[in-house]
């Protein structure tokens, strides 16, 4: 009876403009600011993860292209054979392979220098049978025929071995794919954590405005109207937090990109650059970091609306 009387007393256009006159939830509150801060942190972490996934994927692609275009011939010293003649023969055989762009012969000093990361510097390797290397670099898009090269090396340079780096390339792809998968899992966990935080915040907001929700039900407001009001409120919070967190992640990568250019002058920069690249995100990387903010804002709105429906249906 009381509900029907209130419905007759309250004009329908007043109910329709309820959010414009006095929103159910205050635009600014301590709980709202705390949720925005949580969303900012989550978005920043998710943006860092998305950027790292791009860096690893791009570096892995560069590694794969570089390694796939190179083949190494390793000539081991053997008693009774002239190592220099064997190196020249292996280089000549390599030049005949279709698609070869560059043939580089490493002298003994260069070969010994390659061992320094494992053996250290200052060692006399003159008595060790250090193998000689011949590196063949193929042109982009070429499909070299290595079977005939292996057969000719086995016949004319029996102490030579051919390494097409397939084993290393396979391990590299597995490692890169694993890192990308870990990044995707972290992104999913961040979204789940954000959704849980929004769900708890929505329930708290509903508990704080339970008397207003009861009055709205009495005057004929449907659950969809109440859910829409909560959705709008949390969407604004999500957009605010997502935008701040996304821009913070973009600024982080911009600063790192500028800093890496200065770091390139340091002695260990070549190894770091070979492993991770220049820490410079492509345009798609920055776009994905900003898109994370929009996704988190959408998750905030969707979870809030679903939580309101679930809570109201549970009270009925």
Radius of gyration: 32 Å
Strand order of the largest sheet: 2-3-1-4
Shape: rod-shaped
Helix content: over 70%
Gap from first CA to last CA = 18 Å
SSE pattern? HHHHEHEHHEHEHHHHH
| Major sheet details | 4 strands, antiparallel
In total, how many domains does the architecture comprise?
2
| Strand content bin | 5-15%
Structural class: alpha+beta
Write the layout of secondary structure elements.
Elements: H1 2-9, H2 12-16, H3 18-21, H4 30-68, E1 70-75, H5 83-95, E2 100-105, H6 108-114, H7 116-119, E3 132-138, H8 146-156, E4 160-163, H9 166-208, H10 210-218, H11 223-263, H12 269-276, H13 283-315
Helix pairs in contact: 4-9, 4-11, 4-13, 5-8, 9-13, 11-13
Explain what you see.
This protein is of the alpha+beta class and 316 residues long. It folds into two domains: 2-65 and 170-315, no CATH class; 77-158, no CATH class. 71% of the residues lie in helices and 7% in strands. The protein contains 13 helices and four strands. A four-stranded antiparallel β-sheet has the order 2-3-1-4. Helix 4 packs antiparallel against helix 9, helix 4 (30-68) packs across helix 13 (283-315) and helix 5 packs antiparallel against helix 8. It is rod-shaped. It starts with a helix and ends with a helix. Residues 1-22 have low confidence and may be disordered.
Which terms would index this structure?
316 residues; alpha+beta; 2 domains; 4-stranded antiparallel β-sheet; 13 helices; rod-shaped
In summary, what is this structure?
The protein has 316 residues and is of the alpha+beta class.
């Amino acid at each position: 009876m009381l509900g029907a009387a209130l419905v007759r007393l309250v004009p329908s256009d007043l109910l329709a403009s309820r959010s414009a006159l006095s929103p159910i939830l205050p635009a600014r509150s301590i709980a709202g600011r705390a949720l925005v801060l949580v969303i900012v942190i989550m978005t920043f972490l998710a943006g860092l993860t998305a950027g790292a996934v791009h860096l690893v994927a791009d570096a892995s692609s560069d590694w794969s292209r570089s390694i796939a275009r190179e083949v190494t011939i390793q000539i081991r010293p053997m008693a009774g054979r002239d190592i220099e003649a064997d190196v020249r023969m292996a280089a000549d055989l390599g030049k005949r392979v279709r698609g070869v762009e560059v043939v580089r012969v490493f002298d003994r000093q260069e070969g010994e220098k390659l061992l320094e990361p494992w053996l250290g510097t200052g060692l006399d390797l003159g008595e060790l049978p250090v193998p000689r290397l011949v590196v063949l670099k193929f042109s982009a898009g070429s499909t070299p025929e290595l079977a005939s090269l292996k057969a000719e090396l086995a016949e004319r340079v029996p102490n030579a071995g051919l390494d097409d780096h397939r084993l290393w390339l396979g391990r590299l792809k597995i490692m890169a794919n694993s890192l990308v998968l870990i990044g995707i899992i972290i992104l999913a966990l961040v979204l789940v954590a954000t959704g849980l935080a929004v769900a708890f915040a929505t329930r708290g907001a509903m508990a704080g405005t339970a008397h207003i929700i009861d009055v709205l039900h009495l005057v004929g407001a449907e659950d969809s109207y109440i859910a829409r009001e909560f959705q709008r409120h949390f969407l604004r919070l999500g957009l605010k937090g997502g935008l701040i967190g996304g821009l913070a992640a973009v600024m982080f990568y911009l600063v790192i990109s500028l800093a890496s250019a200065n770091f390139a002058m340091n002695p260990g920069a070549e190894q770091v650059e070979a492993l991770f690249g220049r820490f410079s995100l492509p345009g798609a990387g920055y776009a994905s970091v900003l898109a994370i903010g929009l996704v988190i804002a959408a998750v905030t709105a969707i979870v809030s609306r679903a939580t309101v429906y679930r809570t109201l249906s549970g009270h009925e």
